[in-house]
Amino acid sequence: MKICFNHLLLAFSYALDCVEQDCCYVSHFHGKRIAYFSMKMGEYFQLNQEAMNHLIACAILHDNGMSEYYKYGEHLDVDEFLKAHCIAGERNMSYLPFYHHIEDVVLYHHERVDGKGPFHKVEKDIPLYSQIIHLADWVDIHYSFKKMDPIGYQKMLNDIKELEGIHFSQEVIQAFISTITFEVIEQDLYALNYELKNNEYLTYREIPHSQVLSICQLFAHIIDSKSPHTKSHSIGVATLASQMAIYYHNDQDKVLQLFIAGVLHDVGKLVIDRDILEKPAQLTDREYTYMQTHAYYTYRILTDMDLGDIVHWASFHHEKLDGSGYPFGKVGDELDFNDRLLACCDIYQALTEDRPYKKALSHQESIKIMREMAHQNKIDSQIVEDINRIF
Ligand SMILES: [Fe+2]
Ligand SMILES: [Fe+2]
Ligand SMILES: [Fe+2]
Ligand SMILES: [Fe+2]
């Protein structure tokens, strides 16, 4: 498959921002702004194209460990929380095929050069990319750029200079001052988005299947980490979908694409509040309507990723043949075979796993429910029978 890795990440960054907003205050487009500031500072250090790609990837993913917030959010103090999200984020980064180039960058993205950060590293032991991301992140958390005027901008630079030798190194501060000019700060979000998507550093590459799989594992881990009750749901749906694709004699590429659709089908859940995802009881009508928007967000995020057929296979997993599904109310004619397949795999996986409000059902019980749904013209009866045959 030919993909631009950072394009995928940029689309995914919207979901990551929502996760972060769920646990602490960050600006809209936080991930993208950090990526943009880092890219500009990377130019100061004259990074080559490959290095720039790595830096941008780390910048977008710097807080990916936040989706595990539920594990430690309530009972850790701020310092412990900082450390925990760095460790979780670093572990997820190790799925990336180019991890050996970016080892420890996410782990140390909150380190201070005076050694008073979460892991007490000093300037010489903190990777340059971590230092760049740390400054970009600090600035975005502490200042609002919307109403910033030249006087406010100058004050911000003075504040940063005050932290030389404490939080940041002289060199990284110089990189910031040289590249993040008032004109850069002034840019609106559309301009920033455009520059990130159309810069000279983005590269489309033919990526081997094994590498696509590890990238998928990274995404799946972040998605499933948001809720302990669905911790293996995405991988479960992906595995079912690919096994079924093999049963239907699809070629290797199609099998992989269906696996990716399975991994990403609930990416929109990252946008949904944790309290709703984990509610240990049936949702109210209003909460249920809100929860349903996850399928629409999956559609939006995947459309941005430019993933071809994978977009509809993944996003239509709650559509029903009789038009009663969501988010678009598609009917049978509008749902191709793989749209229907993903829908069935999602239902089978959900029925056979524990949820906050119910225990896992057996294969027989699940098939019984699915046959009833097929009888009501909700899902494809032939696929239900094939699932029964295979699992
Ligand atoms: Fe962070
Ligand atoms: Fe951040
Ligand atoms: Fe879903
Ligand atoms: Fe699902």
TrEMBL record:
Tell me the ranges covered by the HD-GYP domain, including all copies: 208-391
Q: InterPro entries this protein is in?
A: HD/PDEase_dom, HD_domain, HD_GYP_dom
Residue ranges of coiled coil: none
Tell me the Pfam families matching this sequence.
Answer: HD, HD_5
Question: What is this protein called in UniProt?
Answer: HD domain-containing protein
In its UniProt entry, the species of origin is given as Longibaculum muris
